[in-house]
Design brief:
The chain has about 350 residues and is an alpha+beta fold. It is built from 10 helices and 17 strands.
């Protein structure tokens, strides 16, 4: 079955991961994003990536300081910007920052794209809800957990027209029940609740309805919960209510990129790509042999050693210290070689 195009975004973007963040030539470039019903495609001038939606991990995370500074130094206008983080198994965790061509368009291009993205990621996702479990501070003994789904529906605006809002729909034999739990929000927090004998973390949502305070509980998987919070923070006026529930500062994101790059599974997959002679050279350097001593110590031709060193530099496992092929292990190279020495 052919994938269906949902929407597109055209503007500028920046590709951020453990390796590009160290690249002095890193810059904002033209970017087109195509959102399909099953995947998302990022098209840079010299790079194209298509990622399954299941590998999107976060949306609307604050950009690392370096990305902002690069834009400022080049006088790039990224007044309004956003981000998408994805982590497919065949590559490292990556963030794409994106912004309209100019701020004269305001947030409209971003919000229009994000609205479609959240729709694709959240619409019809299963949830459990205990609606109005407390009313005016009193526990309602009749409130029970119900199985429902997230839905985006059109709601008439008080100033005319309509807007799309997120609700929970519980389907029964009679008329479906629509729980509008994401408006008139006073506060939100995580609360331990028991569902079917199991203790879980649920969202506690406090709202004002008909001049009365009500509290409801919503439970779903962690990723769906995060996307709900990001939706509220990015596309509604309730950012203040959810800000304490949103994870990861920009520094934690960068540290996470590094940790992800050096995790056991990632390292093993990197090692599988290495030729025996490349592994041998890495281990020799790890044990203190200088790159200039390698031909003699390993009984290899000088030109052959230099070719292998070039390949290892290209793979990010070595960094060049001097032009005359004096090298040392990079952070990635040290992590991989440490794993080699300890496990093989």
């Amino acid at each position: 079955m052919m994938s269906k195009v949902i929407t597109k975004f055209s503007g500028k973007g920046i590709l951020l991961n453990q390796y590009t963040l160290k690249n002095p030539a890193l810059k904002w470039e033209k970017l087109e994003i195509i959102l399909y019903d099953d995947s998302i495609e990022f098209i840079f001038p010299n790079k194209k990536m298509r990622i399954k939606l299941e590998y999107i991990e976060d949306i609307g995370v604050e950009l690392p300081r370096k990305a902002i500074e690069i834009a400022k130094s080049a006088l790039e206008d990224i007044t309004y910007h956003s981000s998408i983080i994805f982590n497919p198994p065949e590559m490292e965790k990556t963030m794409v920052g994106f912004a309209p061509e100019t701020s004269m368009y305001g947030r409209k291009p971003l919000d229009a794209f994000l609205s479609k993205l959240f729709y694709v990621l959240l619409h019809k996702k299963p949830v459990k809800i205990q609606y109005a479990a407390m009313k005016g501070g009193s526990l309602d003994p009749n409130a029970k957990w119900e199985d429902g789904q997230l839905y985006f529906i059109q709601k008439k605006s008080s100033v005319g027209g309509s807007k799309e809002i997120l609700v929970v729909v519980v389907f029964e034999e009679e008329k479906p029940k629509v729980y509008n739990v994401f408006t008139n929000i006073e506060a939100m927090r995580l609360k331990e609740k028991v569902i079917d004998g199991e203790t879980v973390e649920a969202l506690e949502i406090k709202q004002v309805k008909n001049n009365e305070s009500i509290t409801s509980y919503l439970y779903t998987d962690n990723k769906t919960r995060l996307f709900i919070l990001r939706y509220l923070a990015n596309l509604t006026k309730y950012k203040h209510a959810v800000k304490d529930l949103l994870p990861k500062s920009e520094d934690e994101i960068i540290s996470e990129f590094a940790a992800e790059a050096f995790s056991g599974e990632k390292i093993k997959s990197e090692i599988e790509k290495l030729k025996p002679e490349e592994q041998e050279i890495l281990v020799a350097l790890y044990t203190g042999i200088s790159s200039l001593e390698l031909p003699t110590m390993l009984g290899m031709d000088v030109d052959e050693v230099e070719r292998i060193l070039d390949d290892l530099i290209d793979k990010g496992l070595l960094r060049l210290v001097r032009v005359r092929k004096e090298v040392e292990l990079s952070e990635k190279g040290r992590a991989i070689t440490n794993y080699l020495v300890s496990n093989f």
